[in-house]
Design a protein that fits this description.
This protein folds into two domains: 98 residues, Receptor activity modifying family (DNA polymerase, domain 1, Orthogonal Bundle), CATH 1.10.150.510; 32 residues. Helices cover 65% and strands 0% of the residues. The chain has six helices and no strands. α2 packs across α4 and α3 runs antiparallel to α4. It is a single-pass type I membrane protein. One of its GO terms (biological process) is G protein-coupled receptor signaling pathway.
Length: 168
Amino acid sequence: MKGALGFIGVFLSFLSEPTRGVTPEPFACGDATDRCPDICDLCQSLGQPSLDCLSTLNQHLCLANFVGAMGSLQSADRCSWGLVKVSYSNFSLCTEEMSDCLRIPWPNSQVERLFVDVHHEYFRDCPSEELSDPPEAVVFALAMTPICLIPIMVSLVVLKTKNGDGSS
């Protein structure tokens, strides 16, 4: 039985191998946007594998535009979502477009690292609105209300069924 499972595993891995002896291209090109052919041509001219090219594109196109937009804001203004959201959304869309054009799933670990670095660089001093627990009296009232209503509802059901009156 173990031999059969081993054979099936090797057979399935052979079937799932995408290249089957063909030399893989350094990257795959998608058609998510009109810019994809240009992005793929750039990657091909750089001669980099798709992940390396994605890193280069994210650094030199997406991050550079975001850094430029953030450079025009004062430090205090960086914490105002109304002033940052357009630049942040454009940055996010740019990284997604680069990934889609190179047929790399988005988000991926490389993009996540980039966003963590951006947050560390630009938003670490922003005050966070931390959630806190409500006062104990509110928690007690919210917990006790259904507990008290259940016996009342049960007794109403029992009274209705004892009388034999099925109608309301």
